[in-house]
Write a structure and sequence with these properties.
The protein has four helices and 28 strands. It has helices at residues 195-200, 205-219, 225-235, 240-250, and strands at 4-5, 10-11, 16-17, 22-23, 28-29, 34-35, 40-41, 46-47, 51-53, 58-59, 64-67, 80-83, 88-89, 94-96, 104-107, 112-113, 118-119, 124-125, 130-131, 136-137, 142-143, 148-149, 154-155, 160-161, 166-167, 172-173, 181-184, 189-193. The longest helix has 15 residues, at 205-219.
Length: 265
């Protein structure tokens, strides 16, 4: 195996380091760590116990992976941060591992996590998401495929962001952001369908119109969320994206943005 580990890096002998990994000077790698093939670890990165990293990830200066959870319920459990393949993690990012041994913090594949981001314990980020400068993602949040959180967004505990949704800069939210939309302003609100990302994701314009019609029923009608879901099922042609919207809305535990009443009658 070929590895490029600088002599001024600290790598615990127990750490599992894959082939073609580059570890630059002053990086710090603890023992209960797995770093997969082809990863690059820049100077002053700390890879802490519990990190399980896949292939071809790049981690930039000052980042801390698998930091101890900032959670008063954490009592020292052996927990994990699981990172997939082909992620770019920029400077000064902090990602906490899970609070309890039964959970995990998960970063999927192909994500771009920008400078100064904090991702808290038990967060799940799926694939090909973008997390913008200075964004803070609180514990137990879920960010789905191809979602974008712009700069300085604050996601409060337990909130979800749906597939291909975009939360614009400076927003903060405590409720779920449904798939395929743009969310903006403070207080955060529905800002229309995210047509740019939908087009880039190969979603046909006819389907985009169905998505827009579904959200008109939810956000512009004077009904509860549950009644809005019923109207989507009755009035909007089905398909993968519409099914995804219905499932996301049905499964909310904390409500969605713009809707005060999400339980229905």
């Amino acid at each position: 195996m070929s590895k490029n580990i600088h002599p001024q890096a600290f790598v615990d002998p127990a750490a599992q380091i894959g082939d073609k990994v580059t570890i630059m000077p002053f990086a710090y790698i603890e023992g209960d760590v797995v770093i997969g093939e082809g990863c690059t670890i820049y100077p002053f990165v700390s890879v802490m116990n519990g990190t399980r990293m896949g292939k071809n990830n790049t981690v930039h200066q000052g980042t801390v992976l698998a930091a101890v959870p900032q959670d008063f319920e954490y009592v020292g459990d052996k927990t994990e941060l699981v990172i997939g393949d082909n992620n770019i993690i920029r400077e000064n990012v902090v990602i906490n591992r899970a609070t309890f041994s039964s959970g995990k913090t998960v970063i999927g594949n192909g994500n771009f996590i920008m400078e100064g981001v904090h991702i808290s314990h038990d967060v799940r980020i799926c694939d090909h998401a973008v997390i913008g400068y200075g964004t803070k993602v609180a514990g137990c949040c879920e960010i789905n495929d191809r979602a974008i959180l712009s700069s300085n967004v604050i996601a409060n505990p337990g909130a979800r962001v749906g597939r291909c949704a975009m939360v614009q800069s400076g927003c903060r939210f405590s409720r779920d952001v449904p798939p395929y939309i743009v969310a903006h302003h403070n207080p955060i609100e529905y800002g229309g369908v995210n047509s740019t990302i939908l087009t880039n994701a190969g979603i046909d314009i006819k389907v985009q119109n169905h998505i827009a019609n579904a959200y008109r029923l939810v956000f512009h009608g004077k009904t509860s969320l549950m009644d809005g879901i019923k109207q989507i099922i009755e009035q909007v042609p089905g398909g993968r994206e519409i099914d995804n919207i219905v499932e996301f809305l049905r499964s909310t535990q904390i409500g969605v943005i713009n809707k005060e009443d999400f339980t229905g009658d």
